Amino acid sequence: MIRSELIQTLAEENPDLGLPEVERIVDLFFKEIVDRLSSGGRVELRGFGAFTTRARDARTGRNPRTGEQVPVSAKRVPYFKPGKEMRERLNGKAGSSSPRP
């Protein structure tokens, strides 16, 4: 699903909201996630998963065309860890809430 499909689906499921309103809501949602991650925070959506960042060390990479070595600086990258409910649904265990033996 792409952003425009998400907006269209939300607009169809919420006929009392106009398309521009739904688009603003989606934009605000993503902006808040990015803002929180950029400030070093974490975003957790219960039943869905958690967004965090991870540090990547500086390294030497290679240009795929020339094979030339190029320096790659250290950086922070986004990371998503799916929640338990999502993992269970993806693995065909929907509705399974039985305790582990």
From TrEMBL:
The keyword Ubl conjugation does not apply. GO terms for molecular function: DNA binding; structural constituent of chromatin. Keywords: DNA-binding. SUPFAM superfamilies: IHF-like DNA-binding proteins. The keyword DNA-binding applies. CDD domains: IHF_B. GO terms for cellular component: cytosol. Gene3D superfamilies: IHF-like DNA-binding proteins. Residues 56-101 are annotated as: Disordered. Residues 82-91 have a biased composition (Basic and acidic residues). Belongs to the bacterial histone-like protein family. PANTHER family: DNA-BINDING PROTEIN HU, INTEGRATION HOST FACTOR SUBUNIT BETA. This is Transcriptional regulator. It comes from Sphingobium quisquiliarum P25.
